[in-house]
Queue: 2 jobs
Job 1
Amino acid sequence: MSAEIDPIKLMKQEVGKAAAKRVQSGMIVGLGTGSTTAYAIQFLGDRLNSGEIKDIVGIPTSFQAEVLAKQYGIPLTTLDAVDHIDVAIDGADEVDPQKNLIKGGGAAHTREKIVDSLAKQFIVVVDSTKIVDSLGSTFLLPVEVIPMAITPVMNAIQKLGGKPELRMGVKKAGPVITDQGNMVVDVKFEAIDNPAELEKTINNIPGVLENGLFVGVTDLVLVGEVKDGQTVIREM
């Protein structure tokens, strides 16, 4: 008797593969962070190593993405060495009907926002559990904060109606430290009625580096779904 395949894992694999298929030879590709994007990086490496495509280079958004790209044989470059990014592929923790996002579950949202916003096309890859009617429904809003400013930033966020909590490490004593050496505050808002306004307001708090709201950046969302026992890809 064969082991039953996890439907969430299957959706992530198929949507990652669908995104990787959109990359063409010669492209500069932003490589996102997270479990779904990891499959996209894997399949992109498979296409490159098989000769199906050639002459692509990646720009990683995190140490995780960098390690995966090297593992699967994808050459890397930096923003200093290029004048454009053709396509960026990244995941999301929530996606609303306007294709606005909450990102930052992997504490990489600052680098992700830089790379994703520079891409000519930004493709988001998610499974169907990440689709929500309103941002903040299922996931807290991550905010990257300079360590010395943690207390005043949390106080300022409380005045905005948020409930901030310092993100603590797993299998590590103390808080999560980002690739930039900062900390992450996860914030619960009862409702995020105006994501664009909240994104700017939080980023204007002294000590905040970047928050996980991505507004008006996404070009295409590929959603993995299971229908009648089959995995299908829906476009938003």
Job 2
Amino acid sequence: MKKILEDASENVIQTQGVNISYLSDLYTELDSEDIQVFCVSQFRTVHNKLKSLSRHHSNLHVEAKFSKKVTHLLVDEDDGVCTSSLDVLQGIVSSVWIISAQWILKSTEEKLMPFKSYEVIGVGNKSYNGPRNSRYNKYKQLPGIFNGCHIYLHNFNTKYEISKTIVLTKAILTKLIMDAGGVVLRRVPNPELIPDEEKVVPYHAKKGGKLVECSHFIIFKNMYEPMYNMSHFKALPIGWLIECIEKYELCEPW
């Protein structure tokens, strides 16, 4: 199995043209061999069922916190859509499976249901397909979504609440950005004095879009002056950054 996966990955490196569904199926089979679950469901019945099933399936393990060991994040969802949260955002940038809690509830001591059928469709709404996009990006062995982006976080020295489930700090944002391939700057960049080694372009910028030449970003909470909108340097709201993660795509500026 691993040999087949390695050969398929080699094809991706050489051509980027391998059938992603085929590659996804190979990875899914491999991911089934060792399932490390972190559960954030609000329902005790889900947690209890998960612990019970882990005693009957040698490939199912429960993690007490989100770490690099986690392969599957178990969430509550409604019609395939889960609420955006810090755990979900971290799950997306880590390219783990984000699975409906129904997977555990429908599984039994004799059989674990195929988790692929229970992957959430969207984050917040059905058009925000970050979980799947991130997995596919990993399977293709492409850089993270913020690759080529140098980001300065303006005035995030205190907690900032976007929603009840997303309360940000500078440390949390820094980890999300770095895990998604970006560089976090300690000082405010000067648009007229960009170091040569930082004169790069975002790998995932849309062809013909507004970010194809943009290497530097200032991310702010409410307002920032001056509102840079140069081809290589932009000031954008924190909502833009979160949307990029939720969709796992480098979104066009608002």
